[in-house]
Design goal:
Distance between the termini: 56 Å
Number of strands: 59
Radius of gyration: 35 Å
Number of helices: 11
Largest sheet: 22 strands, antiparallel, barrel
Helix content: under 10%
Structural class: mainly beta
Shape: globular
Strand content: over 45%
Length: 1021
C-alpha cells in the first residue's frame, strides 16, 4: 500500500494511505472547496482595442483583488459564481460572473463624461466641470467616421452652432462658421493645433487627432483677442505614452460617385433640337430676323442626327479615395514619442485629371526631468492638387457641363487637342466641352508645409511655472497653369498667340514666441486660484513671384523661357503682432467659479494711432449639485454665464495708406504751346482711421447630469453683436477714386440663438450603446451698413438693415400670360412681352415692372442645424450611424435657372412643358432666343426650400480576437457616407459651397458631395 507521511509535532509520524488522501480531495471537491481556481485574462478598451494597465479587478463583496499589469493582463484566484468588478478611471465599471472557463477577457466601455474631463482651452487646460465659457468638445471617434482630408469637414453636425459647407471637389475648400456671421469679410474661425496658431487645417492628417474643442463665445475665446471673434477650434494630436513601442497601421479604400437619383434630367438630342427650333421660331415671329441653327432642322443638309451626348453620363465616373497611416508610440518618462505617417489620395468622380494627393508626417515628443517639462512638435506635409478650370471668371465647370449641347461629341480627332466642339454655322451655340477643357489644361497647386513647435516649462516654486514656446509655420507653394493651343469649337479656340503659361511661387513664414507664467495656489481649504500672464510676439513674412508667358506652338515645351512674351511681378510683405495676455481663475469651495480674461493686441496692419485693441471677458458658474440637495437620480446641475469682447483683424496690409500713381502726367496749353507736365495723383481714396472690428458676446447655459450621469443635457442661449465691421461704402464718381468705394468701419451685425446637446449612454454586460444629439438655432440681423444704411446687393440676394445677411431677394411671378388682352391690362414689363411669357407681380402698384418690385423671399442662413449620432457595440461587433441636417432657409437654384433659359444651350426636361397655344396649362414660359421679356430673371421660379436630412455616415466594424505576441488588435470595418438625402431641393445637393456671405443662398454649379463606400482595416502591433 502506498502511503503518504505526515509529521505531527517533533517526533510522531503518521502514515496515511494515498487512497485515503484521494477520498478527502473528492469530498472537498463536493463541498465546493475544489472549485476555487485561478482566472487569467486581458482587459482592453472597447473603443480602440488597446490594452488597459492599472485596471482594478475585485471580487464583489470582498477586498480580494488585483490590478492589470502594463500589458493589461491579470491573474486572480476565484471560485465559480464569483462576480468580478472591473473599474478604471475614464471607463464604465463592469461586472462579470466567473464561469467554467479559466480565461476571462474583458472589454471596457469609455465613460464619455470622464473622458471629457480635461479640456484644452486657450493657453492651458482645465476640467470640463470647471468650464465657465461655451466650449463644445467634439467626439473625435464619431467625427473620424467621416472620411475626409480636412478636419473642418469632420466637424459638420458634431457640435451645435457650427455650420459647415463643402463640395465634392478633391481637396476643395471647406467653409465653416461658428454662431453666424461676425464680419462682412472673413468669418472663418481661428485654428490652433498643438498650441500653434495656423490659418487653415487642411494640410494635416485627420487620423492623428486626439481631441477637438470649439470655443464659441467671448468668455472662452477672449484670450485670443483680435482673432477670436469668429470662434476658435483647438486641435490636439496624439502624444507619446510611457511604455514599450506600439505600432498601429490603418488603411481605408473608398469609392465615390454622384448618386444617379440626384442627377439633373437633361434634354437629349431630339428634345434639345425641338426646344431650339421653338426658340428660334418664337424669336423670328417677333421680327428678330435671326439666322437659324441648321443642325437642328431635319430637312437641312447640316442636320445632326449622329451625335447624342449625355454629358452627365460621360463626365461622372467612380472616384477613388484611399488613406494609409502608420503610427509609432512609446517611450519613457524622460522622453516619450508619437510618430504618425499618413498618405491620402482622392481622385475625382469627374472624367478629368483633377485629384488631390497628400503626404504628411507628425512627430510629438515630450518628457520631464524633475521640475522641468519639455516637448516638441514637428509636422511636415506635401500636397498636390489638380484644380478644375473656369473659362471665364465666375463660371462653373458643373454649369458648363449641364448646359453643353447633346449634338457636341466628347472627342473629335479632327480638332486640335482631340476633343469635340460646336460649329459656328451648323449649331451657332457657344458650348464648352468641359471634359476636353479640363483635360487639356494643366492647373496644379503644390504645397510644402512645415510646422514646428518647441517648448519648455520650469516649475520655479510650487505652483509657479514659466513656459517658453517657440513655433514656426512655413508654407511653400508652386501654382502652375498652362493653356495650350487647342480647338474646342466655335468661340473656344485658343490660338498660338493666346496660349499662356502662368506660375505663382512663393512662401509665407509665421513665427510666434510665447512667454507664459502661471501660478496655481490655494488659500485656506476653499479658495483656489490659477493665474496666467504672458507676452506673445508674432511675425509673418510673405513672398510671392508671379510670371506670365504667352505665345506657344502646339506641342512646345510648357516652360517660361519658350514663351514669345514674358512678364513677372514680385511682392514681399511683413506683418507683426505684439500681445499681452492675462487670465485669473477662481474657485470657491468647488461651488462657485469665476474667470477673467484679458488680451491686448498691437498690429502693423493698422495706422499707429489705431493699432491697439484691448479685449476682455468675465464668466462664472455655479455647481448647484455641490451646494444644494438634488434628488438621488439627479447627479449634477451647473449654471454658467459670461460676457466679453473680441476682435477681428480681417483687413489687408496697409489699407489705411493712400495709393498713388507717380506717372499721372497732364498736358497743359501754355500760350498755344502744349507742355507735358509730370505729376502724381491718388488712385484710391482710403480711410486712414480704419480699425479693428469688435464683437461683444453674452452667453448663459444650464448643464444637467442624471441617472448616474448616463443622461447629459445642456441648454444654452447666446447673443453676439459685431460692430465697426469693415464695409465697402459707395462714394461719388467725382472723388476720382478707383474703385468707386471706400473701405471703412461702418457695419453692425447681431446673431442670437439657442443650442441644445443631449447624450445618453449605457452598458448591459456585453452590450453597450450611446445616443448623442445636438441642435442649434440662429437668427442673424444686420443693424447697420455704412453711414446711410445703403443695402448691399448680390445675385438674387440683398443685405439690408433689419434683415439677415444675404437674404434671397427676387421678383414674384403670377403665372403665364395667355392672351394679348391680359398683357395690355397688366403693368408694363420691359422688353417685348407676348402670350407665353412670365407675368411678374407689380408689388408697389406703380404700373411698371422694375427692380423696385423685387421682394425678400426667405433667409439664406439656416434657422437651425442638427446632428444625431447613434452607436452600439455587442461583444466584438460595433455599429454607428450619424445624421446631419439643416432647415428653415431658402436656396436660389441658379443652376436650374441656367437650364430653363429656353435659348440655344441645353435645357432641363422641365422646359419641354413650355407654353404654346396647344399647351396653355403650364407654368413654363415659351422658349425664345434672347429672352426679351426677361422670363429668366431672378424670380421665385427658382427659389426652393433648403431643408435636408442626410445620412452622413454609417459604419459597421468587427474586432478580430487575437492572442499572439505580435498582434494586439485587428479591426475590419465597412462604412458609407452620404448614403441617402431627404430634401425637396431640386438640385444636386442643398449643402453646397458658396462665398458664405452675401450670396450664401445662391447655388451656382457647386460640385455635389459624393456618395462614398469604403472598406478599412486597422492592425495594432
Amino acid at each position: 500500500m502506498i502511503a503518504t507521511k505526515f509529521l505531527i509535532g517533533n517526533h510522531l509520524t503518521l502514515r496515511v494511505p494515498k487512497c485515503f488522501f484521494v477520498m478527502i480531495m473528492v469530498l472537498l471537491s463536493a463541498t465546493g472547496f475544489a472549485q476555487q481556481k485561478t482566472i487569467t485574462g486581458t482587459v482592453t478598451s472597447a473603443t480602440d482595442g488597446m490594452t488597459l494597465p492599472g485596471v482594478n479587478v475585485i471580487i464583489k463583496g470582498t477586498s480580494n483583488g488585483t490590478a492589470t499589469d502594463f500589458d493589461g493582463n491579470y491573474s486572480l484566484d476565484t471560485s465559480v459564481g464569483d462576480v468580478l468588478v472591473f473599474s478604471f478611471v475614464g471607463f464604465v465599471s463592469k461586472e462579470v460572473t466567473v464561469g467554467d472557463s479559466s480565461v476571462l477577457n474583458v472589454s471596457m466601455e469609455e465613460n464619455v463624461a470622464a473622458l471629457d474631463e480635461i479640456v484644452v482651452v486657450g493657453y492651458g487646460a482645465k476640467k470640463k466641470e470647471n468650464l465657465t465659457g461655451s466650449v463644445s468638445v467634439v467626439d473625435v471617434e464619431d467625427a473620424k467616421k467621416t472620411i475626409t482630408y480636412d478636419v473642418a469637414k469632420m466637424i459638420q453636425g458634431q457640435a451645435p452652432g457650427v455650420t459647415v459647407q463643402s463640395s465634392g471637389e478633391p481637396g476643395g475648400f471647406v467653409n465653416i462658421k461658428i454662431r453666424g456671421i461676425t464680419s462682412f469679410r472673413n468669418n472663418g474661425p481661428l485654428w490652433v493645433i498643438d498650441g500653434v496658431i495656423v490659418d487653415a487645417p487642411y494640410d494635416f492628417a485627420t487620423g492623428d487627432i486626439e481631441s477637438i474643442q470649439i470655443l464659441k463665445d467671448a468668455s472662452s475665446a477672449a484670450i485670443y483677442g483680435a482673432r477670436g471673434a469668429n470662434g476658435v477650434v483647438i486641435i490636439t494630436t496624439k502624444k507619446g505614452k510611457e511604455g514599450k513601442l506600439s505600432i498601429s497601421y490603418k488603411t481605408t479604400l473608398g469609392f465615390q460617385n454622384v448618386a444617379k437619383n440626384r442627377w439633373y434630367d437633361l434634354a437629349n438630342r431630339e428634345q434639345y433640337q425641338e426646344l431650339v427650333r421653338a426658340a428660334e421660331t418664337n424669336a423670328n415671329s417677333q421680327g428678330a430676323d435671326l439666322p437659324i441653327s441648321p443642325g437642328v432642322y431635319p430637312d437641312n443638309d447640316l442636320f445632326i442626327d449622329d451625335v447624342d451626348t449625355d454629358w452627365q453620363d460621360e463626365a461622372f465616373r467612380t472616384g477613388v479615395l484611399e488613406n494609409h497611416s502608420l503610427a509609432f508610440n512609446g517611450g519613457a518618462e524622460s522622453l516619450s514619442y508619437n510618430v504618425n505617417l499618413d498618405y491620402f489620395k482622392n481622385t475625382s468622380y469627374f472624367e478629368t485629371p483633377q485629384a488631390y494627393e497628400r503626404y504628411s508626417t507628425n512627430v510629438n515628443l515630450g518628457g520631464e526631468k524633475g521640475r522641468f517639462k519639455y516637448g516638441a512638435k514637428l509636422a511636415y506635409s506635401q500636397s498636390d492638387k489638380e484644380n478644375f478650370n473656369e473659362y471665364l471668371a465666375g463660371t462653373s465647370s458643373i454649369i458648363n457641363l449641364l448646359g453643353a449641347v447633346p449634338t457636341m461629341p466628347v472627342y473629335d480627332e479632327n480638332r486640335l487637342g482631340g476633343y469635340g466642339g460646336t460649329d459656328g454655322i451648323a449649331q451657332r451655340v457657344i458650348s464648352l466641352n468641359v471634359i476636353g477643357y479640363n483635360n487639356l489644361i494643366t492647373n496644379e497647386s503644390k504645397r510644402n508645409r512645415f510646422v514646428g513647435n518647441i517648448w519648455g516649462e520650469f516649475e520655479i516654486l510650487k505652483g509657479l511655472k514659466y513656459k517658453l514656446n517657440v513655433s514656426g509655420d512655413r508654407t511653400d507653394w508652386n501654382n502652375r497653369f498652362f493653356n495650350p493651343p487647342s480647338d474646342l469649337g466655335w468661340y473656344y479656340v485658343t490660338e498660338n498667340a493666346e496660349a499662356r503659361l502662368e506660375t505663382n511661387v512663393g512662401h509665407d513664414t509665421r513665427t510666434i514666441v510665447n512667454n507664459l507664467l502661471t501660478y496655481e495656489f490655494t488659500l485656506g481649504e476653499k479658495h483656489i486660484f490659477n493665474v496666467l500672464g504672458g507676452m506673445i510676439q508674432e511675425r509673418s513674412d510673405d513672398y510671392n513671384l508671379t510670371t506670365r508667358g504667352t505665345g506657344f506652338e502646339p506641342g512646345e515645351i510648357a516652360q517660361f523661357q519658350y514663351a514669345d512674351n514674358r512678364d513677372a511681378i514680385e511682392r514681399y510683405t511683413t506683418e507683426t503682432y505684439k500681445s499681452y495676455i492675462g487670465r485669473v481663475d477662481y474657485t470657491f469651495d468647488d461651488k462657485y467659479l469665476l474667470e477673467v480674461n484679458f488680451r491686448q493686441d498691437k498690429s502693423s496692419k493698422f495706422a499707429p494711432r489705431n493699432n491697439t485693441g484691448n479685449y476682455f471677458s468675465v464668466s462664472g458658474a455655479w455647481k448647484a449639485h455641490n451646494d444644494i440637495n438634488l434628488p438621488e437620480w439627479w447627479n449634477t446641475l451647473k449654471i454658467r454665464g459670461g460676457y466679453g469682447q473680441l476682435g477681428n483683424n480681417t483687413i489687408g496690409l496697409y489699407e489705411f495708406a493712400l495709393t498713388t500713381n507717380p506717372f499721372a502726367n497732364y498736358l497743359f496749353n501754355n500760350g498755344g504751346v502744349n507742355e507735358l507736365a509730370p505729376g502724381t495723383t491718388v488712385t484710391k481714396i482710403v480711410d486712414p482711421d480704419i480699425k479693428w472690428e469688435d464683437t461683444e458676446s453674452t452667453n448663459v447655459a444650464a448643464e444637467f447630469g442624471m441617472f448616474n450621469n448616463r443622461l447629459q443635457f445642456t441648454a444654452e442661449y447666446f447673443k453676439k453683436k459685431s460692430t465697426d465691421l469693415l464695409a465697402n461704402v459707395p462714394i461719388p464718381y467725382s472723388s476720382g477714386s478707383f474703385p468707386i468705394e471706400l473701405t471703412t468701419n461702418a457695419g453692425t451685425v447681431q446673431n442670437t440663438g439657442v443650442e441644445f446637446t443631449l447624450g445618453w449612454s449605457d452598458t448591459k454586460e456585453d452590450f453597450s450603446y450611446n445616443i448623442s444629439a445636438n441642435l442649434g438655432t440662429l437668427k442673424n440681423e444686420v443693424l447697420k451698413i455704412g453711414n446711410d444704411d445703403t443695402p448691399i446687393p448680390g445675385y438674387a440676394s440683398r443685405t439690408e438693415v433689419g434683415r439677415s445677411a444675404g437674404e434671397i431677394y427676387a421678383y414674384e411671378t403670377e403665372g403665364i400670360f395667355q392672351t394679348q388682352e391680359e398683357i395690355d391690362n397688366h403693368a408694363s414689363q420691359p422688353g417685348i412681352t407676348m402670350p407665353g411669357d412670365v407675368k411678374f407681380r407689380d408689388v408697389n402698384g406703380d404700373g411698371e415692372i422694375n427692380a423696385d418690385d423685387r421682394t425678400f423671399q426667405g433667409v439664406a442662413i439656416p434657422k437651425f442645424n442638427f446632428g444625431l449620432n447613434l452607436s452600439a457595440r455587442y461583444k466584438n461587433f460595433d455599429a454607428s450611424v450619424f445624421f446631419t441636417g439643416a432647415g428653415g432657409h431658402k436656396i436660389f437654384n441658379r443652376t436650374y435657372q441656367s437650364l430653363m433659359l429656353g435659348d440655344l444651350g441645353n435645357s432641363h426636361t422641365d422646359m419641354l412643358n413650355y407654353w404654346s397655344p396647344e399647351n396653355t396649362n403650364t407654368n413654363v414660359p415659351r422658349p425664345i432666343v434672347g429672352d426679351p421679356n426677361g422670363n429668366n430673371r431672378e424670380s421665385d421660379r427658382f427659389i426652393e426650400d433648403g431643408d435636408f436630412v442626410r445620412l452622413q455616415s454609417l459604419e459597421l466594424g468587427f474586432n478580430i480576437p487575437l492572442d499572439t505576441k505580435v498582434f494586439t488588435k485587428a479591426r475590419v470595418f465597412a462604412s458609407g457616407q452620404n448614403l441617402f438625402l431627404i430634401t425637396k431641393y431640386n438640385g444636386y445637393d442643398p449643402d453646397f459651397i458658396s462665398d458664405g456671405l452675401f450670396n450664401r443662398g445662391v447655388e451656382f454649379g457647386s460640385f455635389p458631395n459624393p456618395r462614398t463606400l469604403a472598406l478599412g482595416v486597422q492592425v495594432d502591433f
